[in-house]
Amino acid sequence: MQRREPYNQLWLILLFVSIVLVILWIYQQKHMTSSRSSNTSASSAADRNQTNTDTASSATDQNRTDTDTASSRNAFDRYLTIEDPLRFRGTEESGIAESYQRVCYPSPAEKKEAKDTQTNGYYIVRPGDTLSKIAWIFHIDMKTIMLLNHIEKKDALRAGQKLLLPLSEEMIEAFLSGAYEVKEGDTLLGIAKRFGIDPKLFAKENNIVNSADIYPGRVMILPFAHLKPVSRKKRTKKRYPKFIKRFGKHALRVTATAYTSHCGQTDSTPFLAAWNNRLRPGMKAIAVSRDLIWKYGLKNGTKVRISGLPGIYRVRDKMNKRYRRRIDIYMGLNRKKALRWGRRSVVIYW
C-alpha cells in the first residue's frame, strides 16, 4: 500500500495541470473574440464619421457655389440690365406718322419693287421646257433670261420653277394664251410690233379691214407659231431603189451573216459546197437556210439580189438545220471582211 501512494500523487498533479491549461485556453479565446469585435466596431464608427465629413463638405461646396452664382447674377443685373426706353416701344402718334410717311413717301426699295412688278413678270416652267424654247415663245434673248435669273445654259430647268422675264404679267399671259384685249390707244401696227408678229397675218387672222375694227375691249387673236397645231406627217412605206425592186417577183427580209473557206467555219472540205458545187474566192455565192429552200423556192442556182450589196448572187450552199430565215454570204478567204460584216438584217429579191 505504501508503494502505490507516489503514483497516485503524480496522477493528481497531472490532472490539476491539465485543468489549469484548459482554463487558460478558454480565457484566451474569450479575450481574442472580444478584441476582434471591439476593433470591428471602431472601424465602422470611423467610416461613418468619414462619410458624414464628406457629406458636410459637399453641402458646404454647394452652398458656396449657389452663393457665387447669386452674387454674379446680382452683379450682372446691377451693371448690365437695360430698361426699354420710350423710343423703343413707340407711341400711337409715332406709329401714325410712320404709316403716313410710308404711304406718301415710299422708300427706294419699294419704288424699285413696284417698277419691277410693272416691267417684269414670272413664268412657271412646264414639263419639257428649255431656255431656248422659252426664249423662242416670248421673243426675247436667251442671255437676258439667264442674267435675270442668275442661271447658266447648262443648268437644267424643273417643272414648277419660276423664271423672271422682262415682260409684264399681262404680256406673258397673252403670249401663252394667244389672245389680247385691246386697250385705249392701241393700233394694228403697235400690237403687231409689241408681240413680234406680221401685221398682215395679224389683220387676216382677225378679219381687220380698217381702223374701226380695232376698238377697246375687243379680244384679238395673236397668231403665234408655238400655238399652231403641228401637222404630223403620214408614215409611208419604205421604198427601195427601182433597180432592186424590179428584180424578181419576191422579196423577203432575212438575217445575213458571212463566212469564209476556212476549216474552222466549214467542214474538212472548205471549197466544196452542197449539191457538189465548187467554191472559189471572188465568187458571188450564198448559203441559205433550209426553210428558204422548201418554203420559198430558193433552190440551187437561184439568182438573188441583196439590199446594200451590188451585183447578183447565186444560191450555191445550204446551212445547218437549226437556222431559220437566214443566209450566209461567201467572202472567199477574207476573214476580216467577214468579221466586219457581222450580222445584219437585209432584204433579198429573187
From TrEMBL:
<feature type="region of interest" description="Disordered">
    <location>
        <begin position="36"/>
        <end position="70"/>
    </location>
</feature>
<keyword id="KW-0326">Glycosidase</keyword>
<protein>
    <submittedName>
        <fullName>Membrane-bound lytic murein transglycosylase D</fullName>
        <ecNumber>3.2.1.-</ecNumber>
    </submittedName>
</protein>
<keyword id="KW-0378">Hydrolase</keyword>
<dbReference type="InterPro" id="IPR036779">
    <property type="entry name" value="LysM_dom_sf"/>
</dbReference>
<keyword id="KW-0812">Transmembrane</keyword>
<dbReference type="InterPro" id="IPR059180">
    <property type="entry name" value="3D_YorM"/>
</dbReference>
<feature type="compositionally biased region" description="Polar residues">
    <location>
        <begin position="50"/>
        <end position="70"/>
    </location>
</feature>
<dbReference type="InterPro" id="IPR018392">
    <property type="entry name" value="LysM"/>
</dbReference>
<feature type="transmembrane region" description="Helical">
    <location>
        <begin position="7"/>
        <end position="27"/>
    </location>
</feature>
<dbReference type="GO" id="GO:0016798">
    <property type="term" value="F:hydrolase activity, acting on glycosyl bonds"/>
</dbReference>
<dbReference type="Pfam" id="PF01476">
    <property type="entry name" value="LysM"/>
</dbReference>
<keyword id="KW-0472">Membrane</keyword>
<feature type="compositionally biased region" description="Low complexity">
    <location>
        <begin position="36"/>
        <end position="49"/>
    </location>
</feature>
<dbReference type="GO" id="GO:0008932">
    <property type="term" value="F:lytic endotransglycosylase activity"/>
</dbReference>
<keyword id="KW-1133">Transmembrane helix</keyword>
<feature type="domain" description="LysM">
    <location>
        <begin position="121"/>
        <end position="165"/>
    </location>
</feature>
<feature type="domain" description="LysM">
    <location>
        <begin position="178"/>
        <end position="222"/>
    </location>
</feature>
